[in-house]
Design brief:
The protein is α/β, with parallel strands linked by helices. 39% of the residues lie in helices and 15% in strands. β6 and β7 form a beta hairpin. α6 (134-142) crosses α7 (152-170), α8 (218-224) packs across α9 and α9 runs antiparallel to α10. It starts with 6 loop residues before the first strand and ends in a 10-residue tail after the last helix.
Length: 259
Amino acid sequence: MKLEKPLVILDLETTGTWIEKDRIIEIAMILCLPDKTMKEYVRRINPEMIIPTEVVQLTGITNEIVKGCPRFREVAHEILEFLGDSELGGFNVERFDLPLLEREFSDIGIVFKWRERKIYDAQKVYHLNEKRDLAAAYAFYCGEVLEDAHSALADTRATLKVLEAQVERYGCGEDRVDALDNFDYKMMGEFYDCERRFRWWNGELYMMFGKYARKKTLKDIARDDPRYLEWILSADFSTEVKELVSAALEGKFPQYPAQ
């Protein structure tokens, strides 16, 4: 493709998806120049925290691998130098990679003004041009056009056929629906409860609402401000949240599921 300005395509592997707290464990960038030459930059980074088990399984990057790698602050300036004043691109970079990279820079006192650059996000283009609804799944898996879409019965019948086709395609020769159990439907177990009021990070639960949102662990709140947890018990929260808080007031805390 023809370029008017240098373009850097980038991707991050991280300890999780919490932009305000998670850390980079690998960064890869490709610099594309208008003369069609390209340069690559790849770095493993020591996040200075334990990499969760599910991230190790997903990326293959272990705590032992990054143990001897440089910390972000040790490579930040060479990353900035590689980025230069180029335009930026990637997949889901506007919602995740660039905000997290910005925060990593900010943590060490460097301002990274990526929003002032032109961004080419392949995920946005993909989602705008290719539908990801039931009709698209029905066409993909069953090779048919979904008639009467948004009719409850038609949608239900179509979903059944899609599931049957998925079992056939991904079931490794089995025709049982539980062959799909091999697929993890949860988002890496980041949240403790269905309402996403509490979130796991670095093996601890953090409150995601109220005055302690994203600041203190549940253990710290139980120790420092138990009256706040008592208020939660009297307010309009789910049974799941209240059971968690009630146990915390008794000094009982859930263990991170990956441990």
